Amino acid sequence: MSNKPRPDAPSTSSTRAAARVRPERQDTNPWAFSTRELGRRPGAMRPVTRSVPAPEGEEAIGLVDVFVVPAGSAIALDLRLESVSEGVYVSGTATARLEGECSRCLDPLSEDVVVRVDELFAYPDSITEETTDPDEIPRLVDDYLNLEQTVRDAVVIDLPLAPLCREDCPGLCQECGGRRADLGPDHGHETLDPRWAALRERLPSD
């Protein structure tokens, strides 16, 4: 059997090259916003509101196993897109519900959070694009801007490293693991010298 490719079949290298240049679909991404209406006219502005589903798995927003936005839950975006000389400036708020557990007593914990969004997305071939790294200032891609990483960063920066159900949460008893808030002020555990443990076992319980 001949291993020569059919004349009408694309080669592997050309297929990979096409995949590299094929633009990512932004119009179906809920985190992507079109800027075409602004038309690179400095001062042009467009308000936008949208509810987007929170990502899951490794892309979850928050601190994994501490305080996160539950996967699929709604994140409300209330934004303004404004064209400036070097790109599109996005300002506004993102509202989400965080869920996790108290770092002291391990009780379930939930909280609504509103974070500020302020980000410049640089135009292709702009001075900003030429003089900065993408990690410093994000870029517009095919006249779209993607806010997922911007919102993720804003939420994480605003999170407490050790969330608490209340500021004076007493936590758990180190001996029995019970919630100190439920055990009362008289709760305690007798500490017996191990040298007397065998003798105590021989004595009557009363």
Describe this structure in words.
The chain is an alpha+beta fold and 206 residues long. It has one domain. It has five helices and eight strands; from the N terminus they run αβββββββαβααα. The strands form two sheets. Strands 2, 3, 4, 5, 6 and 7 form a six-stranded antiparallel β-sheet that branches. The longest helix has 11 residues. The radius of gyration is 28 Å and the shape is elongated. The N terminus is likely disordered.
Short description:
The chain is an alpha+beta fold and 206 residues long. Helix content is 19%, strand content 29%. It has one domain.
Give the helix/strand layout.
Blueprint: H1 12-21, E1 32-34, E2 45-53, E3 62-63, E4 67-68, E5 74-84, E6 87-101, E7 108-122, H2 127-131, E8 144-146, H3 148-158, H4 180-183, H5 194-202
Antiparallel strand pairs: 1-8, 2-5, 3-4, 4-6, 5-6, 6-7
Amount of beta strand: 25-35%
- Rg over CA atoms: 28 Å
Mean pLDDT, all residues: 81
* Total DSSP helices: 5
Helix percentage = 10-25%
Structural class: alpha+beta
Bulk shape: elongated
Largest sheet composition:
6 strands, antiparallel
SSE pattern, N- to C-terminal: HEEEEEEEHEHHH
What descriptors fit this protein?
5 helices, alpha+beta, 206 residues, six-stranded antiparallel beta sheet, 29% strand
